[in-house]
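Quick start: what a row looks like.
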Amino acid sequence: MKKLEKSVPVIRFKGFSEAWEQRKLGEIAKITMGQSPDGINYTDNPKYNILVQGNADMKNGQVVPRVWTKQITKTAKKGDIILSVRAPVGEVGKTKYNVVLGRGVSGVEGNEFVFQLLSKMKLENYWGKYSAGSTFESIKSNEIKAAIASVPEKQEQMKIGTFLKQLDDTIALHQRKLDTLKLMKKGLLQQMFPKRGENIPKIRFDDFDDIWEQRILGEFLKESKIKGSNGSLAKKLTVKLWRKGVVPKEEIYTGSSATQYYIRKTGQFIYGKLDFLNQAFGIIPLELDGYESTLDSPAFDIEESINETFLLEYVSLARFYKYQGNIANGSRRAKRIHTDTFFEMPIPLPNSNEQQKIGTFSRQIDDLIALQQNKLEKLSSLKRFYLKNMFI
């Protein structure tokens, strides 16, 4: 019988020098493949058993209860690892609950080292070779159990697991801080604009007590229609959903030469006609000056009498874009919000000084969010570095 190979990782803790041994995953962890309960037993009643079906039930490496079931099939206990066996395969998380395993996942009973090992396998797309060419990506029980991994002795496993868990805990802490900042901004801004039908907000800065005026967007915006290139030549930009910014558009294929594009300028407001209800709004940043879009993403010069950040924050409120988008053209399923319709939408407006205050406040929170996001990305990058170099 051929002897399994042994080797060592790039980064090791002091005191460990023995070679790692290649083992099958099924030899170092207990693996239970999921079996979905009958659909008639699904429920949204939390008094029943939490069902884990796939990636939608995991977030940031943890199981998030979403669906419950009255029927118990295969199970995993609190503290076990959950591995996604259907597209995208290899996603991994831990459960803080006793759960029922659906067909889209498997339960893995193993230590912290095993969890980090599976995270490393996901990072390197280990499972992709089993699903390549398949119309429905999935991995089977025998493929999981037979997966080869290099493993040190127990003490070194514990060291690695403890170290990486501490890093995970730090990442989770920064993620919570980021989520808190976003929630704080959302909550405050909802109260810093008047509710629909009202003319005074609930929260105001000192020294402001004037009634807000009801105006329409067309008074402050002028559509820009500077013709640019055609679809095969244009440097294209796109407006991301859920107000995640304006970014260069990535295309697999060259666009049509028959499609007219229009030049966009820094500081213009832009929105997606097709995705108005998905919060597709943004201000064109400096680095995208001169990029282009079609009239399905119209851009507007903003009058000096309205603060651009104030404008962006207001149209991004659900009470504006959901309500106005749903009533547009008398339909709750309007497919496009055209500029003439957009121009007629109302906006409550304070004086320019109060607009400026609100805009500055919003940008300051955005700066804090960006700082926290940057910290989180650096920590996540560090985690990927250790996963690549502390394992084989």
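That is the whole record. The chain has two domains: 7-152, 213-349. The chain has a mean pLDDT of 93.
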